[in-house]
Amino acid sequence: MTNELTPKFNPTEVEAGRYEKWLEADVFKPSGNPDAEPYSIVIPPPNVTGKLHLGHAWDTTLQDIIIRQKRMQGFDTLWLPGMDHAGIATQAKVAARLAEDGILPQDLGREKFLDKVWEWKDEYATTIKEQWGKMGISVDYSRERFTLDGGLSQAVRKVFVQLYNKGWIYRGEKLINWDPKAMTALSDIEVIHKEIDGAFYHITYQIEGSDEFVEIATTRPETFLGDTAVIVNEKDERYKHLVGKNVILPIINRVIPILTDDHADMEKGTGVVKITPAHDPNDFEVAMRHDLPMINMMNNDGTINENGGKYEGLDRFEARKQIVADLKELGQLVDIKPVRHEVGHSERTGVVVEPRLSTQWFVKMDELAKNAIANQTTEDAVEFYPPRFNDTFMQWMENVHDWVISRQLWWGHQIPAWYNEAGEMYVGEEAPEGEGWTQDADVLDTWFSSALWPFSTMGWPDENSADFKRYFPTSTLVTGYDIIFFWVSRMIFQSLEFTGKSPFHNVLIHGLIRDEEGRKMSKSLGNGIDPMDVIEKYGADALRWFLSNGSAPGQDVRFSYDKMDAAWNFINKIWNVSRYILMNAEDVSADAVSSALTKVANKTAGNVTDRWILTRLNDTARRVTEQMDKFEFGVAGHILYNFIWDEFANWYLELTKEVMFGEDEAEKDITRAVLLHVLDQVLRLLHPIMPFFTEEIFEKLPNTSGSIVVAEYPKVRPEFNDDKASEGVAMLIELITAVRNIRAEVNTPLSKAVPMLIKSEHADFLNAVSPYISRFTNPSELTIAKDLAVPEQAMSAVVTGAELYLPLAGLINIEEEIARLEKELAKWQKELDLVNKKLGNERFVANAKAEVVQKEKDKLADYQEKFDTVKARIAELKEN
């Protein structure tokens, strides 16, 4: 049989070769339909330093869900892929690989070293694309970009030159964060503050020409080599007699002045503060106010330079040990007090960062930030999901500092500035004419080029580029909250400056993947999870289901193998349902399905369960689409799960067996058609989340053609809505469930027939569906009536629209039954209290949609009826 599925879902077999088939069929490219609304996403580019991690798998999964759904909905979709050169990280990785062979980058020189980096890029870009394939991401590779390719390099140079000509990029000597391992400047947000064990070293400085000393405290005693003053507060009576005098720095014996400045806090420590302008941001500001000299006492690699006297050449931390020992020997080390404090570390290399005076290139941020802030009050504002991250973005923009953009690296966009021996500087998109010009050796911060990603990938600076005109601004960005500052904010202010538009309409923020204990995944903890290992065991569909259903937008998610098992079980459940349907409906044509559905909608054929499942399918499609549009993938997944597992598989499929095992062939044909249609629609609803196995089953359906990738996404079909059928089957299911629960309570198996009485205003309907009641409850005698005598000794249950009684004389204890009913009464009282509280809330009633308020009122009526019936039954039992 051509459409046969294997008895057990095997993700390896299902996913093998599927991605390549999609690529060969070009199903991921834009439709090119000029009448379709464009929808575009540019992938957050992974850096080319290695394998994808779970966080990036989360990014790509959510984006792929969005783009697959929009593609099925008829949008002209573009998902543009690309990768980031990741300057510091990539250069460090390549340098480490060369070091294994005893080779230093300096041994090769810039050009040959860059050749090695390009080899690395090609190797790992291939790996990343293979991993993208395993994830199933539906990008258009014909538009793939890299942050160092020709088009993006042109965009980077244009942006740099334009900002320079406006005076918004400048070169100057300022205090910056310095990474001694990578030997490069870092921006503020590339510094991670970690709490570590340290100490306050209390040191005395002698007053020049006297035997008096002042005491200072510092966590970095080695920096005294760069001290150029000490300060006290002018209101501090303890030190007024010293202002204007000098102190002698111990060991190096340099004389520096005692000044007054408000930076000295009388209430903190001794009130005397050492000033090291070239190595502390606060001290730098003090030096600027007092025109103090700035002495850099450290080399690029973190060793002490020629200004360090006898400590020259020592590593900064080794110098600290020796300086402390020497101060102790001199008697000028008063005390060492342990302290737990936050210290900046390089986000890329992990080493302790040094504040250091350095000549660098900077972006002046005041006007750029002002534009970004103002834009958030306009119609072009970027919508953050969840909205609270708009506050995060705004607060950072309101407090942003000038951005240091030069990096002392070889891998990256080389700064388009040239110098000659006459001391002249030229900035331009191309090298200046003539001899004697040397290009600035530094490169730009990786985030400078990544900030242009949404529009540079679309062909900008050519604003007549077809893709730029068609797909920019992009529709949605998906990323983690940890790079709002690094990337999202920079894309916004650069896009506003150079295109006059926001780079995207929506930003969906997700959290971090944590381990089962809630810890952040890290190499040091050894708790990292490789998504490729998960895929190998469970398949990409199961991983994607977990990632999309793990949490709400903006929230962290804990990885769990139990959840992966549950995801695999869910897929296997659908697989088995599909096998059953295909085995029973392999020859049903598309025309037959269409004809059958029309008859069911017109109520000229089919039964109440068929109309019920089609109504429930409509409701599911509506609710799932609403939640997907709000990026609430977890809620959408929950709705799908409940419909597929509970209503479709556990109930409708079982209810159809009453027909499938019967004799009426015409009714069987209707049921087969409905089964096929619902399965078809379920696969389409699931496809954006779980693309591989849905395609595998979809292509085996007897009435479909082409790829599910471009199949139409389910829409609500009003002709299928049947509220009476929906309410009726809901009552039927509630009755069957109640009988099963009662049987379980008195340990009476389904195989043992027992008498059953049902009292209901809907007796006519329940008699019509009595074959279902009989099949699933096994009554020895079934009585259904609008009015009937209630047996004295009977287990009872109240469901919506009916009362159920099982006369089980000899099997029940009246007192226990009363106790059980009293628990049920308490349950309905609790439900009533909740609904009454909600309806008693004037704000809820005034602001909620009318249908939502009515739904609560309907609940109130239903719960009240159940409460009253149970209460009356308790009274009857107590009387007897």
Written description of the protein model:
The structure is a single chain. The protein is an alpha/beta fold and 880 residues long. 46% of the residues lie in helices and 17% in strands. It contains 29 helices and 29 strands. The strands form nine sheets. Strands 7, 8, 9, 10, 11, 12 and 13 form a seven-stranded mixed sheet that branches. Helix 24 packs parallel to helix 26. 42% of the residues are buried.
Report how far apart the termini are. 64 Å
Uncertain regions spanning at least 5 consecutive residues = none
> How does the helix and strand content classify structurally?
alpha/beta
Q: Please tell me how large the radius of gyration is.
A: 36 Å
Can you tell me the overall shape? elongated
Main pleated-sheet profile: 7 strands, mixed
The tally of strands reads 29
Summarize the structure in short.
This protein is α/β, with parallel strands linked by helices and 880 residues long.
